[in-house]
Specification:
Blueprint lengths: L1 H16 E9 L3 H12 L4 E4 L7 H5 L19 H4 L27 H14 L4 E2 L4 E8 L7 E7 L4 E9 L5 E2 L11 E2 L14 E5 L3 H10 L5 E6 L6 H4 L11 H7 L5 E4 L5 E5 L5 E5 L18 H4 L11 E4 L3 E2 L36 E3 L17 H20 L5 E5 L3 H11 L1 H5 L4 E7 L5 E9 L6 H5 L7 E7 L31 E7 L5 H5 L12 E4 L11 H16 L8 H10 L5 H7 L9 H9 L14 H17 L7 H6 L4
Parallel strand pairs: 1-2, 1-6, 2-3, 6-16, 8-14, 9-10, 9-14, 10-11
Antiparallel strand pairs: 4-5, 5-6, 7-15, 12-13, 17-19, 18-19, 18-20, 20-21, 21-22
Subunit structure: Interacts with SEL1L. May interact with OS9 and DNAJC10. Interacts with TXNDC16.
InterPro entries: Auxin_biosynth/cation_transpt, FAD/NAD-bd_sf
Family: Belongs to the FOXRED2 family.
Length: 675
């Protein structure tokens, strides 16, 4: 009996050793909580692991000086909630109106502590399943042909508790500081630990390594108390208003540019940090030299025995010694917890701080492993907003929709409309959709045409990088061609060296819409779904392959694309040319006339008037149509008396000469079944 009890206890312990969930999410930052929200709304089995005691632990420390650079616009002049999200860069997506960030702060650039409180409320009010104080320290694969992806993900936490998952969503962000090693780098202070009290820098000379927002944020904090600040980096400064990339230097932090260009001692330098070396003298001052000066020399022998650049070039830029050197080089993804079996590889070039993923946000090395949030920014690095809340809240939703179709047979959400609503549907989306607006050139609306172009199916915010896989990824079919609606900047308008304030920088005429520079809608038309080969061979910097036809809606100063002549009419004519059909709307009187004079009725008449649908007319509406030239001015006839008969005969003769057909008032045509 004792042996039996012991064996059963072992089995129970073995069973408890692996806790299973369909979905495991690592990280309870903004993207992890956003993924949890969608999984919970779909009633999926999931768990979120967070190493800290609360969500959003990154924001508890960063940015160090506590001011976010994500805008929080309180007023837009509009009540449309979807449109207002275009100018709310902090809110996550949910059905709960209490969880809009503007209810937490009125500051245009909010405090980071408010973000921490917001994320705590988001997790608690929505009752998301987050397991705190759980640090995942190792992730590996467990092969199983019965699993969704041919394997399970085996996760181990700091207490050696194991978890099995069918699908793994990595939302840890990039939090490992970038460090450059060179002789003397031990004297460098990190952004993550340096003092944020300006008084600690009073009367000091400071060198900052880096040129991003963290570097300029640090400089801005001490600008008024230091002797001078020098900033050195490998690349030139990139201004966000020139590159149209929100991750580049923002105006709120660029005070050092003023003091540099207005010759107030501060300055910017370019150079490879790996070529530098730092030597400390007896007074504790830090001298900048070059690595090759220290080759085959003992740096501990003293500064007097070391050749400095100013010994050969007496006006060397950094010849003055520094009191402090601060490293502000950003962060990178933590690859250390992933077993080699997952093949989580860093990207190449300037994307090496991110893991390699596909445009679908799935790992290139392992099926079923998706990267969300900031760590997924390699898909649109320096192009769009995928590394920031106002961008990845939409890409996270796209990943969820892909998973719903793949694992649960739930097709990508879509709506079917009659073809007569095509122009209106596009105009509505380009004027209010936030996902298209924030994730320009990355997410697009897809319009799938039905047979004979009598109707269309509308899919919102699909990743264009996997357009060739649309049928497989969405569960929708595209046999009859499609339109792709996307937002783009002008081809040659963005760049670190561009003058974006030059005279005549904007286009105002519809015929020149293809030359638009600022963000504007572009509609691509394909007779057939592009292939993977066409996607690979697309022109450089094009989000899509060359289409059968393309239309640019001219840029608008108010980003309001509702002008009848400049925006709507050119779009409608483009759609009509692609479909070889008439997309105009007609009064019932005109449809009645077409029924007698044309072999084929326009779609609006076929789908509306013939089915006894459409606008009910009135005399005032008819008069307006006549004055606008939309209807012929047929005189109403009084059939009582001889004079009326003569008038009727005269009118009949006139109609015969004009080859027109008399009709009765609009309200009779619409309301009378017999007629």
């Amino acid at each position: 009996l004792g042996l039996a009890l012991y064996a059963s206890s072992l089995c129970a312990a073995s069973g408890a050793a692996f806790l299973y969930h369909d979905y495991c999410v690592i990280g309870a930052g903004p993207s992890g909580l956003q993924a949890a929200y969608f999984l919970q709304q779909a009633n999926r089995d999931y768990i979120v692991f967070e190493r800290s005691h609360a969500p959003g632990s990154f924001f508890a420390l960063y940015p160090r000086h506590r001011k976010l650079i994500s805008i929080n616009k309180q007023y837009t002049g509009k009540s449309n909630s979807e449109f207002n999200l275009r100018h709310d860069w902090n809110s996550l997506l949910s059905h709960d109106r209490r969880l809009l960030f503007r209810r937490y702060s009125r500051d245009f650039f909010p405090d980071a502590d408010v973000m921490v409180r917001y994320l705590e409320d988001f997790a608690s009010l929505l009752k998301l399943r987050v397991q705190y104080n759980t640090a995942i320290v190792h992730v590996t694969l467990e092969r199983d042909e019965q699993a969704w992806n041919g394997h399970y993900f085996l996760l181990t936490d700091q207490d050696r508790q194991n978890y099995n998952c069918s699908s793994l969503l990595v939302a840890t962000g990039t939090w490992v500081p970038n460090v450059v090693n060179f002789p003397g780098s031990e004297y460098v202070e990190g952004y993550e630990t340096v003092s944020i009290n300006p008084e600690d820098f009073a009367g000091q000379t400071v060198l900052i390594l880096g040129r991003g927002n963290s570097a300029f944020e640090t400089a801005e904090n001490i600008l008024g108390v230091t002797n001078f600040i020098h900033m050195v980096s490998r690349s030139r400064v990139r201004l966000s208003w020139a590159t149209h990339y929100v991750g580049d230097l923002r105006a709120i932090n660029n005070g050092l540019l003023d003091t540099y260009q207005l010759k107030s001692l501060d300055g910017l330098l370019e150079g490879d940090l790996e070529d530098l070396a730092i030597v400390k003298d007896k007074k504790g001052k830090l001298h900048i030299t070059l690595r090759f000066y220290l080759e085959n020399r003992n740096t501990s022998a003293g500064i007097d025995s070391i050749t400095l650049p100013q010994d050969e070039l007496d006006n060397f830029a950094t010849r003055a010694p520094y009191d402090r050197v601060i490293r502000c080089l950003g962060w990178k993804f933590d690859f250390s917890i992933y077993n080699r079996s997952l093949r989580m590889m860093p990207g190449k070039g300037n994307k090496k701080k991110y893991p390699q993923i596909k445009p679908s946000y799935e790992s290139r090395g392992t099926r079923g492993l998706f990267v969300l949030g900031t760590a997924s920014h390699s898909v649109d690095f320096r192009k769009s907003a995928g590394g920031f809340i106002h961008g990845f809240r939409y890409t996270t939703r796209a990943v969820h929709r892909l998973l719903e179709n793949r694992h649960h047979g739930v097709p990508w959400p879509s709506t079917v409309y009659p073809i007569t609503q095509l122009t209106n549907s596009i105009i509505k989306r380009v004027n209010e959709a936030s996902g298209l607006y924030q994730m320009f050139s990355v997410l697009a609306d897809i319009i799938l045409l039905r047979e004979n172009a009598t109707a269309f199916e509308y899919l919102e915010e699909y990743p264009v990088g996997v357009l060739a896989e649309l049928e497989m990824q969405t569960g929708r079919k595209a046999p009859n061609g499609l339109f792709v609606v996307i937002m783009e900047y002008g081809r040659n308008f963005s760049g670190a060296d561009k003058d974006v304030f030059y005279y005549n920088r904007a286009v105002g005429e519809a015929q020149h819409a293809w030359q638009s520079n600022f963000l504007h809608p572009v509609i691509y038309y394909y007779k057939h779904l592009p292939t993977e080969r066409e996607m690979r061979l697309r022109p450089p910097d094009w989000p899509l392959p060359r289409p059968d036809a393309v239309h640019h809606i001219v840029e608008d100063f108010l980003t309001d694309w509702t002008a009848p002549n400049a925006h709507i009419l050119p779009l409608r004519r483009f759609l009509e040319n692609c479909l070889s059909t008439d997309l105009r709307n007609f009064f019932a009187e005109s449809c009645f006339l077409f029924a007698f004079t044309r072999q084929k009725l326009p779609p609006f008449c076929r789908q509306g008037y013939v089915r006894m649908q459409g606008l009910v007319g009135s005399e005032g509406l008819r008069r307006h149509a006549v004055e606008a030239g939309l209807l012929e001015d047929y005189t109403l006839i009084d059939f009582s008396g001889d004079k009326a008969l003569d008038s009727y005969k005269g009118s009949q003769d006139q109609l015969l000469r004009d080859h027109t057909i008399p009709v009765r008032p609009l309200q009779h045509l619409v309301n009378s079944k017999d007629e």
